[in-house]
Amino acid sequence: MNPVLSSSAREKQSENNSEIPFFDQSDTFRRLWPEIRENCGRVLDDGKFSHGSMVEEFERELERWTGARHVVGVNSGTDALVLLLRAAGLRPGDEVIVPAYTFVATATAVVHAGGVPVFADIEPHGHGIDPRSVERAITERTRAVMPVHLFDRLADMEGVGEVARAHGLTVLEDSAEAIGMRSDGRHAGLLGAGGVLSFFPAKTLGAVGDAGALLTDDDAIAETARMIRHHGRSGRTLADFPGISNPTVVTGCNSKMDDLQAAVLLTKLAHLDADIERRAELSRRYDERLRGLPGVRAVPGGAPRIPGQERVIYVHLIEVDGRDALAAHLAAAGIGTEVYYPRPLHLQPCFSHLGHRPGDLPRAEEVCRSALALPLHADLTDAQVDRVCDEIERFLTGGTR
């Protein structure tokens, strides 16, 4: 590095020459380390490292932040989905309608809970489950529908709700990505019988490992989930198994949240509003640069605004022609991206026994060919966004613009 450059010029040169990872939170942890260290110290002093007072404190703070009547901390977003399905009364063989375009945990959670996933397509101009496809998928065995709130906005909960009410179905939300998203003031996960949050490190509110939570306003679902996560116990003694006659509870598991993860999450929760706003700023910058480029067919800011809905940009996803070639170009330039998702769930080998064929759910299949997620996190700089956009423009225009 040129020693005569000013500090700002050296910083700019470093940004231009260094790799841009898809996700990074090292600056956040450096900034918040004194607070994180203090909360972790409280855990060490207390000596309770799992299912302890720090978890309880985090649950209470998250209830306040989301408005949920109950938050049940568990060890992953996936476990939260399984516990939600079981606590809501899913029986062996019950069908749950889920979108074909989502992470595999949405469907495998149904399997782990004893149910059968049934796949529906997604909206023509979005990524949420299509209520019309949901209605076509209903059978006499359908018990629930589980919309997924993906990337930057809620699924069509009004449309899904209308179908569910007409057919007597329970609505459970895979809101793992949706912290901060609200509809008319109600937080994601509280628009049906219950929902979940994931605190996987790359999430908008991320831990330093796996952690998750179940959200609900339903007292019975919350009580059952609390017992399931702790081997069927409602208390802390080895003799306290009040649900011993209830198969849902007696087959409980060990899915307690670690207190050190809760300590990190409690610290970061206090800064979450600022992180959400920073993500929105960066996403707007992407939109301004990328909208209208040849081959870019959709950007987050181009989707219709839904009245009353508060968006949170967890992933900045574009739909673009030549997605794989563009991803390779960006990788060669040191820019990380992610493909959400390479193959729709109804065409995954693990679900081949359900009998789907290519073309069954065309919108989900098309998005799997064109969607690309760009770097987005609170530590990303404006200059890094501009560099990503420069490389995308160079690829799509052949360097002619």
For the sheet with most strands, the description reads:
7 strands, mixed
Low-confidence blocks of residues = 1-16
State Rg.
Answer: 22 Å
The CATH class of the largest domain is Alpha Beta
For the record, the CATH architecture of the largest domain stands as: 3-Layer(aba) Sandwich
Task: Tell me what the structure shows.
- Belongs to the DegT/DnrJ/EryC1 family.
- InterPro entries: DegT/StrS_aminotransferase, PyrdxlP-dep_Trfase, PyrdxlP-dep_Trfase_major, PyrdxlP-dep_Trfase_small.
- Its EC number is 2.6.1.-.
- The structure is a single chain.
- The protein is of the alpha/beta class and 401 residues long.
- The protein folds into two domains: 7-22 and 272-397, Aspartate Aminotransferase, domain 1; 31-269, Aspartate Aminotransferase, domain 2 (3-Layer(aba) Sandwich), CATH 3.40.640.10.
- It has helices at 7-17, 26-46, 53-66, 77-87, 105-112, 131-137, 157-167, 219-228, 247-250, 259-269, 272-290, 323-332, 362-370, 382-397, and strands spanning 70-74, 95-99, 116-120, 142-145, 170-173, 182-183, 186-187, 194-198, 212-216, 296-298, 309-310, 316-320, 371-374.
- Strand 4 (142-145), helix 7 (157-167) and strand 5 form a beta-alpha-beta unit.
- The longest helix is centred in the first third of the chain and has 21 residues, at 26-46.
